[in-house]
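Weekly sync notes, structure subgroup
Attendees: PM, AL, DS (notes)

Item 1: joint prediction request from the bench team. They want all two components modeled as one assembly rather than separately. Inputs as received:
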Amino acid sequence: ETGVTQSPTHLIKTRGQQVTLRCSSQSGHNTVSWYQQALGQGPQFIFQYYREEENGRGNFPPRFSGLQFPNYSSELNVNALELDDSALYLCASSFNRGINEKLFFGSGTQLSVL
Amino acid sequence: EDQVTQSPEALRLQEGESSSLNCSYTVSGLRGLFWYRQDPGKGPEFLFTLYSAGEEKEKERLKATLTKKESFLHITAPKPEDSATYLCAVQASGGGADGLTFGKGTHLIIQP
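Output from the run, pasted for the record:
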């Protein structure tokens, strides 16, 4: 059973650029969620995808968008990067949507915006 | 708006010295309260889910309890490998996103 994998592990971008982060879900999981974790803070919910459709969204602007593919892997896209977007981006998969028992997190992508 | 407040922010204990971490929450309707452990450079790792007041769950040296306003994570005779940041999160009922609302965490250090 493979775990949740994210790529790249680290990324440096310039303000105004666009970035794509990738996530492979744990085998058998059809739901993926993305979280942003700023330094010293808890993770903040960005959105969730279930069977290739957005299933819910937190308080993030539309320049944060995502995709889920038929194999349940996922992408997080961020346009017009701002300095405050610097954070650890976590992907988590689960067996199903709804009550998120046992979210399985990847190790994250550390994004630095200069 | 759902809110989760964890205290203390940081806690340093000697090996074997038992203590408790607190998680206070306000939520429109609680579907579940979750405890996760996060090691440096890694994503959170699931520990427990609690659903209703009075519920308790245990795993090795950890025991989680839940009331209508707060949850406690009791750690008994901790070892250095228990050092980590412990995160509390809630999931609200009634429509909207299924995302979790996390607290800032308690950074726990166990000294040998």
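Discussion: The mean pLDDT of chain B is 94.
Action: AL to compare against the crosslinking data before next sync.
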